[in-house]
Protein backbone atom coordinates (compact mmCIF):
# COMPACT_ATOMS: atom_id res chain seq x y z
CA UNK A 1 0.00 0.00 0.00
CA UNK A 2 2.93 2.26 -0.68
CA UNK A 3 1.46 3.42 -4.00
CA UNK A 4 0.49 6.99 -4.65
CA UNK A 5 -3.01 8.02 -3.73
CA UNK A 6 -5.38 10.35 -5.47
CA UNK A 7 -4.80 11.89 -8.84
CA UNK A 8 -6.54 14.98 -10.09
CA UNK A 9 -8.55 14.39 -13.23
CA UNK A 10 -7.63 17.76 -14.76
CA UNK A 11 -5.75 18.99 -17.82
CA UNK A 12 -1.97 18.84 -17.60
CA UNK A 13 -1.53 22.58 -17.99
CA UNK A 14 -3.20 25.71 -19.24
CA UNK A 15 -4.49 29.06 -18.14
CA UNK A 16 -7.56 31.01 -19.05
CA UNK A 17 -10.50 29.65 -21.01
CA UNK A 18 -8.30 27.52 -23.27
CA UNK A 19 -7.96 24.82 -20.56
CA UNK A 20 -11.72 24.32 -20.04
CA UNK A 21 -12.83 22.63 -23.29
CA UNK A 22 -12.95 18.83 -23.43
CA UNK A 23 -11.17 18.24 -26.73
CA UNK A 24 -11.83 15.17 -28.91
CA UNK A 25 -8.88 12.82 -29.13
CA UNK A 26 -7.43 13.68 -25.73
CA UNK A 27 -7.53 10.84 -23.24
CA UNK A 28 -7.00 12.47 -19.84
CA UNK A 29 -10.72 13.25 -19.36
CA UNK A 30 -12.13 9.78 -20.08
CA UNK A 31 -14.83 10.96 -22.52
CA UNK A 32 -14.65 8.72 -25.58
CA UNK A 33 -16.98 10.64 -27.91
CA UNK A 34 -16.40 14.30 -27.08
CA UNK A 35 -17.76 16.75 -29.63
CA UNK A 36 -15.49 19.54 -30.83
CA UNK A 37 -16.20 22.83 -29.02
CA UNK A 38 -19.19 21.31 -27.23
CA UNK A 39 -18.12 20.08 -23.79
CA UNK A 40 -16.36 22.22 -21.20
CA UNK A 41 -15.05 21.58 -17.72
CA UNK A 42 -16.72 23.36 -14.85
CA UNK A 43 -13.94 25.23 -13.00
CA UNK A 44 -15.66 24.83 -9.61
CA UNK A 45 -15.72 21.02 -9.85
CA UNK A 46 -12.68 18.99 -8.83
CA UNK A 47 -12.53 15.26 -9.51
CA UNK A 48 -10.08 13.09 -7.61
CA UNK A 49 -9.34 9.59 -8.85
CA UNK A 50 -8.54 6.83 -6.40
CA UNK A 51 -6.28 3.90 -7.31
CA UNK A 52 -7.99 1.02 -9.11
CA UNK A 53 -8.87 2.34 -12.54
CA UNK A 54 -7.12 4.78 -14.86
CA UNK A 55 -8.71 7.56 -16.93
CA UNK A 56 -9.30 5.17 -19.84
CA UNK A 57 -11.17 2.65 -17.66
CA UNK A 58 -8.40 0.06 -17.35
CA UNK A 59 -8.67 -1.79 -14.04
CA UNK A 60 -5.59 -2.47 -11.93
CA UNK A 61 -4.91 -5.51 -9.76
CA UNK A 62 -5.43 -3.55 -6.55
CA UNK A 63 -7.60 -0.56 -5.84
CA UNK A 64 -9.18 1.72 -3.29
CA UNK A 65 -12.88 2.14 -4.09
CA UNK A 66 -13.93 5.76 -3.79
CA UNK A 67 -16.89 4.80 -1.58
CA UNK A 68 -14.46 4.01 1.25
CA UNK A 69 -12.72 7.37 0.91
CA UNK A 70 -16.11 9.13 0.72
CA UNK A 71 -17.29 7.35 3.89
CA UNK A 72 -14.07 8.30 5.68
CA UNK A 73 -14.43 11.95 4.63
CA UNK A 74 -18.14 11.99 5.49
CA UNK A 75 -17.39 10.77 9.01
CA UNK A 76 -15.13 13.84 9.31
CA UNK A 77 -17.60 16.38 7.95
CA UNK A 78 -16.15 16.72 4.43
CA UNK A 79 -18.86 16.87 1.76
CA UNK A 80 -18.36 14.68 -1.31
CA UNK A 81 -20.86 15.70 -3.99
CA UNK A 82 -20.73 12.52 -6.08
CA UNK A 83 -18.88 9.24 -5.90
CA UNK A 84 -18.17 6.76 -8.69
CA UNK A 85 -16.33 3.46 -8.38
CA UNK A 86 -12.94 5.23 -8.33
CA UNK A 87 -13.72 8.94 -8.46
CA UNK A 88 -14.84 11.61 -6.04
CA UNK A 89 -16.36 14.94 -7.08
CA UNK A 90 -15.97 18.05 -4.94
CA UNK A 91 -17.46 21.50 -5.54
CA UNK A 92 -15.45 24.62 -4.78
CA UNK A 93 -18.06 27.25 -5.54
CA UNK A 94 -17.76 30.96 -4.84
CA UNK A 95 -17.50 31.57 -1.13
CA UNK A 96 -15.63 28.38 -0.28
CA UNK A 97 -12.75 29.39 1.91
CA UNK A 98 -9.33 27.89 2.58
CA UNK A 99 -10.67 26.17 5.69
CA UNK A 100 -12.87 23.85 3.63
CA UNK A 101 -10.13 23.20 1.08
CA UNK A 102 -7.65 22.42 3.85
CA UNK A 103 -10.23 20.16 5.52
CA UNK A 104 -10.41 18.13 2.32
CA UNK A 105 -6.62 17.90 2.04
CA UNK A 106 -6.34 16.95 5.71
CA UNK A 107 -9.02 14.27 5.29
CA UNK A 108 -7.33 12.78 2.23
CA UNK A 109 -3.96 12.79 3.99
CA UNK A 110 -5.46 11.11 7.08
CA UNK A 111 -7.12 8.48 4.89
CA UNK A 112 -3.84 7.71 3.11
CA UNK A 113 -1.95 7.41 6.39
CA UNK A 114 -4.61 5.17 7.98
CA UNK A 115 -4.85 3.03 4.83
CA UNK A 116 -1.07 2.56 4.69
CA UNK A 117 -1.10 1.56 8.37
CA UNK A 118 -3.88 -0.92 7.50
CA UNK A 119 -6.00 0.09 10.48
CA UNK A 120 -8.99 -1.93 11.56
CA UNK A 121 -12.30 -0.82 10.06
CA UNK A 122 -13.50 -0.37 13.66
CA UNK A 123 -10.91 2.37 14.21
CA UNK A 124 -10.89 3.94 10.76
CA UNK A 125 -14.60 3.92 9.90
CA UNK A 126 -16.47 3.69 13.22
CA UNK A 127 -19.87 4.56 11.71
CA UNK A 128 -19.51 1.80 9.12
CA UNK A 129 -18.35 -0.62 11.80
CA UNK A 130 -21.42 0.22 13.91
CA UNK A 131 -23.69 -0.87 11.04
CA UNK A 132 -22.53 -4.51 11.35
CA UNK A 133 -19.95 -5.09 14.11
CA UNK A 134 -19.92 -8.86 13.60
CA UNK A 135 -19.03 -8.52 9.92
CA UNK A 136 -16.32 -5.89 10.45
CA UNK A 137 -15.01 -7.17 13.82
CA UNK A 138 -11.44 -8.09 12.83
CA UNK A 139 -11.42 -6.66 9.32
CA UNK A 140 -8.69 -4.29 8.25
CA UNK A 141 -9.19 -1.48 5.76
CA UNK A 142 -6.97 -2.94 3.03
CA UNK A 143 -8.89 -6.23 3.15
CA UNK A 144 -12.19 -4.37 2.85
CA UNK A 145 -10.87 -2.22 -0.01
CA UNK A 146 -9.51 -5.19 -1.96
CA UNK A 147 -12.70 -7.19 -1.38
CA UNK A 148 -14.83 -4.38 -2.81
CA UNK A 149 -12.34 -3.80 -5.64
CA UNK A 150 -12.47 -7.50 -6.53
CA UNK A 151 -16.29 -7.36 -6.76
CA UNK A 152 -16.16 -4.20 -8.89
CA UNK A 153 -13.74 -5.93 -11.28
CA UNK A 154 -15.61 -9.24 -11.27
CA UNK A 155 -18.91 -7.60 -12.21
CA UNK A 156 -17.36 -4.86 -14.43
CA UNK A 157 -19.23 -2.14 -12.57
CA UNK A 158 -17.57 0.73 -14.50
CA UNK A 159 -18.49 -0.92 -17.82
CA UNK A 160 -22.07 -1.49 -16.69
CA UNK A 161 -22.35 2.14 -15.62
CA UNK A 162 -20.88 3.36 -18.91
CA UNK A 163 -23.32 1.27 -20.93
CA UNK A 164 -26.23 2.43 -18.76
CA UNK A 165 -25.50 6.06 -19.68
CA UNK A 166 -24.84 5.44 -23.39
CA UNK A 167 -28.54 5.22 -24.24
CA UNK A 168 -30.74 8.24 -23.75
CA UNK A 169 -34.40 7.59 -22.93
CA UNK A 170 -36.85 8.60 -25.61
Description:
- This protein is an alpha+beta fold.
- The protein has a single domain (7-166), classed as Alpha-Beta Complex (Aspartate Aminotransferase, domain 1).
- 39% of the residues lie in helices and 8% in strands.
- The protein is built from seven helices and four strands; from the N terminus they run E-E-H-E-E-H-H-H-H-H-H.
- The chain has a four-stranded antiparallel β-sheet with strand order 1-2-4-3.
- The longest helix is centred in the middle third of the chain and has 19 residues, at 98-116.
Tag the structure with descriptive keywords.
170 residues; alpha+beta; Aspartate Aminotransferase, domain 1; four-stranded antiparallel β-sheet; 7 helices; 39% helix; PyrdxlP-dep_Trfase; pyridoxal phosphate
Give the full name of the CATH homologous superfamily.
Aspartate Aminotransferase, domain 1
The number of helical runs is 7
Low-confidence stretches: none
Rg for CA atoms:
17 Å
Mean pLDDT: 86
- Oligomeric state of the chains? single chain
Number of separate domains: 1
Strand element count: 4
List the strand order in the largest sheet.
1-2-4-3
Task: Give a short account of the largest sheet.
Answer: 4 strands, antiparallel
Q: What is the overall shape?
A: globular
For the terminal residues, how far apart are their CA atoms?
Answer: 46 Å
CATH class placement: Alpha Beta
Helix content: 25-40%
CATH architectural type: Alpha-Beta Complex
Percent of sequence in beta strands: 5-15%
CATH topology: Aspartate Aminotransferase, domain 1
Topology pattern, helix = H, strand = E: EEHEEHHHHHH
Going by helix content, strand content and strand pairing, the class is: alpha+beta
